[in-house]
Amino acid sequence: FSLDCTMKPLLLFLFLLPAVINAQDGVQSPALKAVLNRMDSFSQKQYDPEYPLGRYREEDFKARYDFRKKIDGELAAIKPASLDSNDRVTLELLKFTNANELAEYEYKSYLNPILSDDGFHIDFVGQSGTVIRNKQDADNYLKRIEAFPMYVDEHIALIRRGINLGISQPAVVIHGFRSSYNNHIVDTVEKSMFYRPFQTRPAAISEADWKFYQEQGKQAIRCTVVPQYKRIRRFFEEEYIPRTRKTLGATAFPNGQRYYQQRINYFTTTQISYEEVYKTGLREVARIEAEMKKQQ
């Protein structure tokens, strides 16, 4: 039994927590509502128009951790017995997801922003799905492309730090990873996925302005996107891939046993040990095999 040590948060966190934060009108407890307000305010302050792709420096993760620690204390001070049933569910969900955010930082998961089938440079490809409806959309899209070099800088710095600490993906899962950057190193701009938003002119932009934006888009792809993906290729092939670890499980990380256990607790939403999970897996395999033999 193994867990991908950098699996993305549960759908529970991705979908329920934002709903909980935004549904503050349904919360009855003043103390709980105050916590939700602070979380919402902090989340909004995280967006800075100067950095449209966000910030990913170690100090940024530390600031988020420090905020989460304060929230942890505030949640612990709220007595469940004083809440109605809906607020108790909200409190437990917040405690659960907040504790995971704290653990992710403490075990330095942010230094490993790479999965076998995902990564920071793959996430950026999502920008190519931008729909341009007006000039503001076009300007914002170009600004996000312009921010790509800093985004790459900060993630490479994190990955280098992780490698030096023995935190990386196993070498075996990186096979076939090259297409994730080679696909974006194109010889003509029109072949780039990042040019797709400029293929169809919206009614709100004149023909003349649209030609201007198309030229700006071509230049951004030619001078920013392609060179950055070439840089990412150099980094992965000359630094990252040769230094990825030969071990497989998360237990090979610093504090790996404890991290592995924390991941199991989080993804199973239980407190069972990894030994119990492993034994359960063996029993289930044996049971399934026995059932299959009965059918023969």
Which regions contain 5 or more consecutive residues with pLDDT less than 50? 1-15
Assembly of the depicted chains? single chain
| Overall average residue pLDDT | 91
Order of helices and strands: HHHHEEHHHHHHH
Structure commentary:
This protein is an all-alpha fold. It is built from 11 helices and 2 strands, in the order ααααββααααααα. The chain has helices at residues 11-22, 30-45, 58-76, 85-106, 120-123, 135-146, 148-164, 179-182, 207-243, 256-268, 274-295; strands spanning 114-115, 118-119. The chain has a two-stranded antiparallel ribbon. Helix 3 (58-76) runs antiparallel to helix 4 (85-106) and helix 7 runs parallel beside helix 9 (207-243). The longest helix is centred in the C-terminal third of the chain and has 37 residues, at 207-243.
List its traits.
mainly alpha, two-stranded antiparallel ribbon, 1% strand
